[in-house]
Automatic annotation (TrEMBL):
Signal peptide bounds: 1-27
Stated name of the protein: Bifunctional inhibitor/plant lipid transfer protein/seed storage helical domain-containing protein
Top-rank lineage group of the source organism: Eukaryota
InterPro entries registered for this protein in UniProt: Bifun_inhib/LTP/seed_sf, Bifunc_inhib/LTP/seed_store, nsLTP2
Membrane spanning residue stretches: none
Domain Bifunctional inhibitor/plant lipid transfer protein/seed storage helical: 30-95
Example GO molecular function: lipid binding
GO annotation terms (biological process): lipid transport
Pfam family, one: Tryp_alpha_amyl
């Protein structure tokens, strides 16, 4: 089993490379780096933090844009993302 500490730098590097801002509905700026507090929940069995859930709710309109990005798609379409969405009470994106 791969330790979480090994995944955090990898996820951080991916986030930094893909920090493109994707405009969506007025008032929402899609910045994937805002989701960094969710990294442990997406890469391990850790439950999402309150900060993670708050950021996910803020970024919900951005999920379809993130799904179109091949570097991010794997984080949204994985078993841990379903768990995180359920715990944070966020509906999975329907694009």
């Amino acid at each position: 089993m791969v330790k979480v500490t090994m995944w955090v730098p990898v996820l951080a590097a991916i986030l930094l490379v893909t920090v493109a801002k994707i405009p969506v509905a007025e008032g929402v700026t899609c910045t994937v780096s805002e989701l960094f507090p969710c990294a442990p929940a997406y890469t391990s069995s850790s439950p999402p933090s309150r900060t993670c859930c708050t950021k996910l709710r803020e970024q919900t309109p951005c999920f379809c844009g993130y799904l179109r990005n091949p570097s991010l798609r794997g984080y949204i379409n994985n078993p841990n993302s379903r768990k995180v969405s359920s715990i944070c009470k966020i509906s999975p994106p329907r694009c």
